[in-house]
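Quick one from the shared queue. A colleague (R.T.) flagged AIG1-type G domain-containing protein as missing a structural entry in our internal table.

Convert sequence to structure tokens.
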Amino acid sequence: VLGPTGSGKSTFISNLIEEGQIKPKVDDGLDSCTKQLQHYFIDPPQSVVKSLNSRRIVLVDTPGFDDTEISDFEILRRVAVWLSVSYKRQMKVGALVYIYPLSSSRYTHKDHTNLRIFKKMCGNDARPRVIMVASKRDLYTKKETREKREVQLRSHWKTMLDGGSKMEYVENSHESASKLLKAVI
């Protein structure tokens, strides 16, 4: 699970983890919470258990792009190392999830650069397994404003979507996170 700092990556994962289990730290403060890649085993929704053929779901929480302490290059290096180790352990990466906050005031040059690097990391062949996710759309109370932002974001993600990636939405709830997880599976 990748995306800018504060986009809701840890919140998405936390909303999928049962009470009493270790969850990622979630904070609405100014500083980034996630400092290391951390994997979490997720219990799949009953509706998809059969299709998984006894495989487990592992979500990897990553530090966000534009982190307060870690460079974007270092974050991507850590992801590449994790993927390399995972492949050697015969793990299959089912999907890459890129979360971006719809509530962001502007889509910046830095956002564009991060997306470009993410596209290169994925490669063309993996694009159908990429889920582009708009988070925090529930912060918009006016439907027209929310829809306008969704159209703008879809425009910024055009090359990914044209390459086979899907666009989804996630809000801060277990139900919304479960719906997104089903789309990922």
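The beta strands are 38-42, 57-61, 96-101, 130-135, 166-170.
The helical segments are 9-14, 72-88, 109-126, 143-156, 158-162, 174-184.
Added to the table.
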